[in-house]
Amino acid sequence: MFKGHHPTCGSFTNHVLQIRGKTYCAGCLGLLTGALIAIAVGLIYSLDIARFESETTFVFWFGFAAVFVGLIQYAKPLMMKGSVHFFLNVVFVIGAFFLLIGVIEINGSLAVEMYLIVMTIYWIFTRIILSEREHERTCTICEVSSCAYHPH
Known about the structure:
Blueprint: E1 2-3, E2 6-7, E3 16-19, E4 22-25, H1 26-46, H2 56-71, H3 82-106, H4 110-141
Antiparallel strand pairs: 1-2, 3-4
Helix pairs in contact: 1-3, 2-3, 3-4
């Protein structure tokens, strides 16, 4: 009945990825992949192996754009495939990380950095709420009445 924690009714094909015959939630896998990449880059950054001083403005605006795109991914035209959903979630997490790096490099203020961390938590909850609303909208128009997830 559920694969990748989504119903198998066919309405959620753009929310899942098939990898080696297994079904995974594209959103969750994208968030996990983005987090792993951000952790790796964060480790490299914190060990002073790589710095972004000369690219600070680009890093900040890339992060801003990536978070924006990650949050608007639930607009219907963007939600065509699971792979797009996966990619946008990877970009969302990496974008939040790059925003933080940009703020650290530009400002260096602990208060501003803490504010951005709080905003990132807010954006994560916003993304979760948008995802839940998309699921509700998808289930509302679904015609499979035997689905346990069906709201009717």
